[in-house]
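Hi support team,

I've been running sequence recovery on a batch of backbones for a student project. Most finish fine, but this one hangs at about 90% for roughly twenty minutes before it completes. I'm not sure whether the input is malformed or the queue is just slow. I've pasted the structure tokens below so you can try to reproduce it. Let me know if you need the job ID as well.

Thanks,
M.K.
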């Protein structure tokens, strides 16, 4: 492709990048996606740790844009494993012939908007400078690994892994003493499997996680056939839920405080038996009323106490914070793993990990000797992948500086001063609080429409208007303040990365957001400026 031949550059080839390439091409645009990985898949290319699975059911965590694709693809389990999701994304890339528009093994390093040519100049690790009118950041919300700067971190003599950058050939932990640092979703999924193989596993826990059982199982062919017979409607139902999935499930219609203790316990019990994140849909007010929330929290704590034999360990594993404030985990045998003789828990909530030495992890003066360390320490979420690229808009202003006090955007899609730059599932949009595939499809379609609109108006660029952006930031803060999401140190708030500004980044409520976007379009793209 010659320099002037690209209309659109897409950064990333995960769910978002693949669909952007497909849609842009089908709208007649010349598009190239640039992907750092050696294959497509994004999150699902990198996160290959033992037990890696999606916590949204596979029939829903999949593209709905193409009828034949959703009819033909056969998911095997209620929750798909990482290899199965990666196979699916490879299938999507092949099925729609997307690979010819994707450059792999190439990392985008900087993006500069040239106000004279009104094009983005994109510098990548292959030494090339590409230009395009439109730049779509499909860089993922959880793709920049968070590797805490613990003293001595790089002095450890054995292998060190991060769950989000797992070796492709797998890791054999047999006869090894292993440390896992962190107890978020990645740890909760991998700990039971690592414990089965390791000689000894020591888990370093800063904050205990709330986990509900997955009850994963093979999909019932009759159930799959019934869904496929009515897939579009089924998906439309999902888009009406706040989280973009589970539209077919019974939803709680009352406050948790409006029912008797026995009735409430029975409802939680049924949800627990059903499994999955829909546990928090048991009542209407679990994420807005602290007292209601604590009834759910207490129920999970009682389950932990019943599952974990040693009362001190059970107590250490029991969270006291708002349930759902940090993303809940969906587990298989997580808590009972702590009943094994070869597993121990080290609480680092009040005495943080002091150092990593060549032979292990030091806490409160005590060395825990291990042969391998697994950092299950998550990601610099939502802004990390964008911050790690030098992005400069008009007048050379960097996105990093523009976001130094926390991310600002209009609809989570555009940032004032950065014309023709789009952030798929960017901060300020529902993104990680929803089924990501639903959020991605909605954003990619909106971006394609915006690009069409630029042509229709014979304009050269589209950009968020400053006042519209300021209003949007206020709106996101207001919505977040009406929920219990701000009551803990979550990665939604940037609190897991030292020095990151504490700003609640995603926007709760997919249907309301979609409605606002539809209104913006109906009002002639209100809040966007076409130049
Ligand atoms: P998470 O959910 O961010 O979990 C990271 C874990 O690592 C969490 O328990 C952190 O404790 C812990 N952590 C981070 N830094 C440290 C240090 N310095 N010392 C000890 N412990 C630390 O990431 P995951 O990869 O598990 O999951 C990310 C998302 O992927 C998940 O929500 C799903 O959407 C899928 P903290 O809670 O910050 O105290």
């Amino acid at each position: 492709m010659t320099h002037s031949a690209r209309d659109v550059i897409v950064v990333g080839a995960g769910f978002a990048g693949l669909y952007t390439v497909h849609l842009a091409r089908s709208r007649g645009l010349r598009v190239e996606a640039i992907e750092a990985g050696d294959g497509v898949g994004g999150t699902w290319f990198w996160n290959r740790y033992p037990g890696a699975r999606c916590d949204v059911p596979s029939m829903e965590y999949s593209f709905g844009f193409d009828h034949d694709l959703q009819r033909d693809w056969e998911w095997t389990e209620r929750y798909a494993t990482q290899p199965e999701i990666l196979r699916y994304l490879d299938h999507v890339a092949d099925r729609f012939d997307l690979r010819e528009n994707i450059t792999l093994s190439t990392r985008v390093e900087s993006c500069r908007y040239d106000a004279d040519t009104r094009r983005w100049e994109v510098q990548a690790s292959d030494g090339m400078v590409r230009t395009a009118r439109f730049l779509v950041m499909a860089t993922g919300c959880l793709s920049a690994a968070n590797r805490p700067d613990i003293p001595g971190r790089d002095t450890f003599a054995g292998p060190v892994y991060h769950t989000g950058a797992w070796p492709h050939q797998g890791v054999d932990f047999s006869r090894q003493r292993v440390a896992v640092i962190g107890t978020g979703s990645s740890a909760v999924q991998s700990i039971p499997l690592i414990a089965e193989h390791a000689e000894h596993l020591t888990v370093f826990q800063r904050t205990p996680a709330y986990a509900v059982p997955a009850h994963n199982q093979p999909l019932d062919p009759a159930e799959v056939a019934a869904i496929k017979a009515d897939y579009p409607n089924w998906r439309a139902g999902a888009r009406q839920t706040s989280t973009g999935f589970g539209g077919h499930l019974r939803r709680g219609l009352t406050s948790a405080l409006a029912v008797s203790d026995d009735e409430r316990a029975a409802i939680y019990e049924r949800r627990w038996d059903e499994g999955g994140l829909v546990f928090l849909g048991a009542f209407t007010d679990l994420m807005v009323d602290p007292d209601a929330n604590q009834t759910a929290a207490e129920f999970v704590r009682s389950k932990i106490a019943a599952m974990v034999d040693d009362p001190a360990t059970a107590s250490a594993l029991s969270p006291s914070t708002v349930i759902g404030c940090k993303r809940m985990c969906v587990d298989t045998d997580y808590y009972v793993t702590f009943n094994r003789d070869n597993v121990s828990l080290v609480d680092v909530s009040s005495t943080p990990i002091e150092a990593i030495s060549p032979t292990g992890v030091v806490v409160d003066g005590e060395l825990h000797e291990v042969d391998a360390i697994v950092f299950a320490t998550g990601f610099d979420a939502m802004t990390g992948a964008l911050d790690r690229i030098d992005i400069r808009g008009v007048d050379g202003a960097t996105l990093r500086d523009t976001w130094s006090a926390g991310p600002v955007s209009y609809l989570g899609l555009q940032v004032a001063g950065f014309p023709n730059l789009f952030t798929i599932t960017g901060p300020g949009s529902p993104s990680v609080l929803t089924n990501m595939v639903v959020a991605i499809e909605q954003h990619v379609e909106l971006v394609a429409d915006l690009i069409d609109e630029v042509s229709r108006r014979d304009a050269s660029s589209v950009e968020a208007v400053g006042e519209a952006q300021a209003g949007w930031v206020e709106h996101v803060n207001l919505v977040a303040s009406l929920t219990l999401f701000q009551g803990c140190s979550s990665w939604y708030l940037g609190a897991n990365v030292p020095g990151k500004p504490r700003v609640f980044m995603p926007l709760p409520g997919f249907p309301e957001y979609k409605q606002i976007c539809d209104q913006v379009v109906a009002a002639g793209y209100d809040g966007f400026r076409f130049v």
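--
Follow-up from support: It reproduced on our side and the slowdown came from queue contention, not your input. The chain has a mean pLDDT of 97. No action needed from you.
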